[in-house]
Amino acid sequence: MLSAMTKTLLALLIIFSLFHVPAFAVKKKSYIVYLGSHSHGPEVSSLALKRVAESHHELLGSFLGSHEKARNAIFYSYDRHINGFAAVLEEEEAEAISKHPNVISVFLDKGKKLHTTHSWEFMQLEKDGVIPSSSLWSKARLGEDTIIGNIDTGVWSESQSFSPHGLGPVPCRWKGSCNTAGNVSCNRKLIGTRYFNKGYLVSAGLNSNSSFESARDHNGHGTHTLSTAGGHFVRGASVFGVGNGTAKGGSPLSRVASYKACWPPVNGSECFDADILAAFDMAIHDGVDVLSVSLGGDPADYFADGIAIGSFHAVKHGITVVCSAGNSGPAPATVSNVAPWILTVAASTLDREFQSFVQLASGERFKGESMSKALPAGKMFSLTAGAQAKLANASAIDAMLCKEGTLDPHKAKGKIMVCLRGNSSRVEKGRQAAQAGAAGMILCNDKASGNDITADPHFLPATHINFFDSQALFSYVNSTYLEPMGTLTAPAAAFGIKPAPYMANFSSQGPNTVTPGILKPDVTAPGVDIIAAYTREQSLSGLEFDHRTTAFYIESGTSMSCPHVAGVAGLLRTMHPSWSSAAIRSAIMTTARTRDNRVSPMLNGSYVKANSFNYGSGHIRPNRAGDPGLVYDLTLNDYLDFLCAVGYNQTMITLFSESPSYKCPKEASVVDLNYPSITVPNLTGSSVTVTRKLKNVGSVGTYAANVREPHGVSVNVEPSVLKFDRVGQVKSFKMTLKPKWVAKDYAFGGLTWSDGKHYVRSPIVVSTA
Ligand SMILES: *[C@@H]1O[C@H](CO)[C@@H](O)[C@H](O)[C@H]1NC(C)=O
Ligand SMILES: *[C@@H]1O[C@H](CO)[C@@H](O)[C@H](O)[C@H]1NC(C)=O
Ligand SMILES: *[C@@H]1O[C@H](CO)[C@@H](O)[C@H](O)[C@H]1NC(C)=O
Ligand SMILES: *[C@@H]1O[C@H](CO)[C@@H](O)[C@H](O)[C@H]1NC(C)=O
Ligand SMILES: *[C@@H]1O[C@H](CO)[C@@H](O)[C@H](O)[C@H]1NC(C)=O
Ligand SMILES: *[C@@H]1O[C@H](CO)[C@@H](O)[C@H](O)[C@H]1NC(C)=O
Ligand SMILES: *[C@@H]1O[C@H](CO)[C@@H](O)[C@H](O)[C@H]1NC(C)=O
Ligand SMILES: *[C@@H]1O[C@H](CO)[C@@H](O)[C@H](O)[C@H]1NC(C)=O
Ligand SMILES: *[C@@H]1O[C@H](CO)[C@@H](O)[C@H](O)[C@H]1NC(C)=O
Ligand SMILES: *[C@@H]1O[C@H](CO)[C@@H](O)[C@H](O)[C@H]1NC(C)=O
Ligand SMILES: *[C@@H]1O[C@H](CO)[C@@H](O)[C@H](O)[C@H]1NC(C)=O
User: Fold this and answer.
1) Is 474 in the pocket of ligand 8 (CB under 6 A)?
2) Beta-sheet strands, E only, within 14-110
3) Which of 91, 113, 202, 267 to mutate to test the pocket of ligand 4 (most atoms within 8 A of CB)?
4) For the chain, what is the total number of helices (H) and then of strands (E)?
5) Smallest CA separation from ligand 7 atom 4, residue
6) Which end of the chain has fewer CB atoms < 10 Å from its terminal CB, N or C?
7) Domain Subtilisin-like protease fibronectin type-III, which positions (predicted)?
């Protein structure tokens, strides 16, 4: 999308290197030195903050030889909640520092990628624009006064989604502030803006200028995600009139804050660990309740990952952190943001399509998708394939792809061009067709792109069809005995499409490669063709020649599904202010469903039954999450026990937790973390017993266990009935799993506790290999 910009940045880097780095110089890189937590209370004096910075200079100075050198090397001192610093160091220096007894980890400052509105109606929070009393929106007062922050590309503060209409004064617990550089403005809705650029500038080798000194969103991603989580109601929101409706976020009456840590890509990364950590540190200080983080890198060790560390500190302060699972699917073992204190979200479809049909004179009709202008109704046009309209000097294959400089205006004028997908951007092909004077375009998938069709805003009336239909269209267009004629129907939103949801092909999948005993992703939510607020600083397609901007735009990705769940977490915050972030996650997970709108098992992108590695516990059901009955709760010590179990030693954990009294249990085990899903990656012995605790957050009642055994595994739950005499009561149970035979693949089952009214579901994932 921003490849031209990337090229400029890379060229600058090369030039910078040639001029400034002598051939013999040792290569310095930016590192993060992580030291754990600070013990200072909520009211930190500037003197205390200064002391923190000095202690960092002292520590680093003892390795570099002077305070002066340390001061020059350090570009961030994390001084509020997260203890550590980011500095430019040589590899040997970093290596030496990592051995210091107060240091938990030293890691390279790695880059990360950025990974309506009908979606709320699809999830039954509203019906025909009316909010029923059964809706979580009614019960949770639309997320009133919950504070939702995101770490992203900033915010376009002018968007109507951030209008303060009808909101009272900013909650007095808010300690954040509004950085107004670049004309960003705040109000009672958008209550905080900050930006963090130092890690980016060091990694990109750039000097700062005004475009890097503002929380303004030049990309659109941050505005889209923040408005999806917490945007206000905006009537008449559409993309050029298509998808017209009332836009809204998951917690429409929440307050929102933007932490900009992502910038134009360098080497494929937009956001760097050093900036992400700084953003987390300030968000904790400012007092957000929920953080939505739609970005990630390759799965990494917990203490070598800015998101894992930052989110741990956030969760420790009662913040719910929701992250995207990544867009590296459908390959297995690609899920990122896998720490067990994060709520990790996959992406699936809605039951809406922006349809524009190809109608041929022969009577054939193919369903396509589009967000482009309509052709004049009732008129037929002649059809021509790129290869038939080629310039004499162009190759047939390049013309078929409608590449630049290949189409002959004499042959294209007034016709509908048929172009093959691939090698240039989809919107670029439309531009070539438009420049050659075509009246419209049909974009045809090749074999590789299969059924993957996208509703794009083209420069001319256009639609996009799948591979199967493309083959039929080509043979019609090729026929020589009559003139191929056809038209495109006006793009219109169609609802109730079945099946929905199904998993998006791009959604990253389990198993979890860092800790196989924790199932990730946790849940799935809408992430395909989501309409939300956008920035006017960026053109629609992001391409250089495109000057069209829009206040609302359609985007797909786990970046879009993540803020849906953040919005729901915001509602639960308002409704149940005393719940921990683990209780909120448990409520969302145990009430999720694994069936689609045909009441059949949810499918993957090839229309084959999907499984827990695709969707975790299933698709979120917000109305049920408000009243889950029971929750699998977790405390900070449970997470520390987990870290002991995965092999961090007592010394490291003591530094990390800042609680000298905490001791690693003698027999810590990953399977015993009180997680709302159950994964035994390693059922190779005679049996494995898993312990869980359930807390009653509903009403007095008796719950019975119902197990769906994974194929080839016998499961016994003891006790199989739990009687809760009061709210808040905690009861535990044990589940024993025994392999019946050795299977080469993972097997999937489930456990449901029910009192006849609530259904508390957990997926069971087992490998006997
Ligand atoms: C900020 O707004 C003022 C007044 O509208 C305008 O003159 C100025 O150019 C703007 N600055 C930027 C950086 O957009
Ligand atoms: C800031 O620097 C970047 C990279 O060098 C450049 O692309 C951009 O145009 C500059 N912006 C301003 C406002 O100077
Ligand atoms: C969207 O719908 C509203 C109400 O139905 C209507 O007033 C408005 O003109 C429509 N906007 C567009 C761009 O079609
Ligand atoms: C880009 O990535 C390559 C390969 O990972 C690496 O060698 C190179 O140093 C990176 N360049 C920058 C500017 O980070
Ligand atoms: C073919 O020639 C035209 C000028 O007549 C030129 O604009 C175009 O770029 C050429 N195309 C190719 C593929 O060389
Ligand atoms: C697209 O470009 C790649 C690399 O230039 C080339 O290998 C491939 O054959 C092209 N595909 C088509 C359909 O022309
Ligand atoms: C998903 O990918 C498969 C190939 O892996 C392809 O056959 C299918 O058409 C894709 N589905 C969609 C909806 O794009
Ligand atoms: C259409 O004709 C072109 C040659 O003109 C040929 O390459 C292509 O395979 C034909 N496609 C179909 C589907 O018949
Ligand atoms: C869907 O699931 C089937 C069966 O597990 C698998 O073979 C296929 O690759 C999956 N498709 C996608 C796109 O994930
Ligand atoms: C704890 O782990 C760290 C990092 O692996 C190691 O340097 C240290 O020696 C270990 N301490 C003990 C007491 O084993
Ligand atoms: C699997 O189980 C064996 C024996 O219980 C243990 O040594 C090993 O560490 C386990 N592996 C994983 C990935 O849990």
Assistant:
1) yes
2) 28-37, 74-78, 82-90, 105-108
3) 267
4) 20, 36
5) 606
6) C
7) 672-766
Residue 21: the pLDDT is 32
For ligand 3, pick from 244, 371, 373, 550 the residue to mutate: most ligand atoms within 8 Å of CB: 244
Catalytic site includes residue 221: yes
The residue from 30, 324, 559, 657 that is catalytic is 559
Q: Please, are residues 464 and 429 in contact by the beta-carbon 8 Å criterion?
A: no
Ligand 8 centre and the CA of 374: distance in Å? 28
Token code pair at residue 498: 């079945």
| Cα 267 to ligand 4 centroid, rounded to whole Å | 6
**So where are the chain's domains?**
26-106, 142-337+503-610, 352-492, 672-765
Q: Hey, how many other C-beta atoms are within 10 angstroms of the C-beta on 331?
A: 8
CATH topology of domain 26-106: Alpha-Beta Plaits (3.30.70)
Neighbours of 743 (CB within 10 A): 17
**For residues 483 and 498, what is the distance between their CA atoms, to the nearest angstrom?**
36
Which CATH class name applies to 142-337+503-610?
alpha beta
| Protein residue with its CA nearest to atom 3 in ligand 5 | 405
**What contacts 502, CB < 8 A, 6 or more positions away?**
348, 349, 596, 602, 603, 604, 605, 607, 610
Cβ neighbours, 10 Å, residue 181: 13
The DSSP code for 147 is E
Distance of CA 392 to the CA centre of its chain: 47
- Among the listed residues 221, 224, 313, 576, the single catalytic one is 221
Does residue 484 line the site of ligand 1, with CB under 6 A? no
CB 282 within 8 A of CB 194: yes
Confirm or reject: Cβ of 719 under 6 Å from ligand 3. Answer: no
| Closest Cα to atom 11 of ligand 7 | 605
Instruction: Decide: 332 and 316 in contact? Cβ < 8 Å.
Output: no
User: What pLDDT is attached to residue 15?
Assistant: 25
Least Cα distance to 257 among 116, 143, 157 occurs for 157
> How close is the Cα of 681 to the center of ligand 11, in Å?
9
- 672-765 topology per CATH: Immunoglobulin-like (2.60.40)
Q: Is the domain defined by 352-492 classed in CATH 3.55.40.20?
A: no
To the query of whether residue 208 is one of the catalytic residues in this protein, the response is no
Averaged pLDDT in 10-residue chunks for the chain of 769 residues: 30 27 61 91 85 96 96 95 96 96 94 74 81 87 95 97 96 97 98 98 95 96 97 90 86 98 91 97 98 94 95 96 95 97 97 95 95 93 96 96 96 97 92 97 94 91 97 90 91 93 96 97 96 90 84 92 98 97 98 97 96 98 98 96 94 83 91 97 92 97 98 97 98 97 92 98 95
Q: What is the pLDDT of residue 22?
A: 33
Is 152 in the active site?
yes
pLDDT of res. 622: 97
Q: Which of 79, 109, 152, 217 is catalytic?
A: 152
Strand partners, 530: 555
Say if ligand 3 is within 6 A of residue 244 CB. Answer: yes
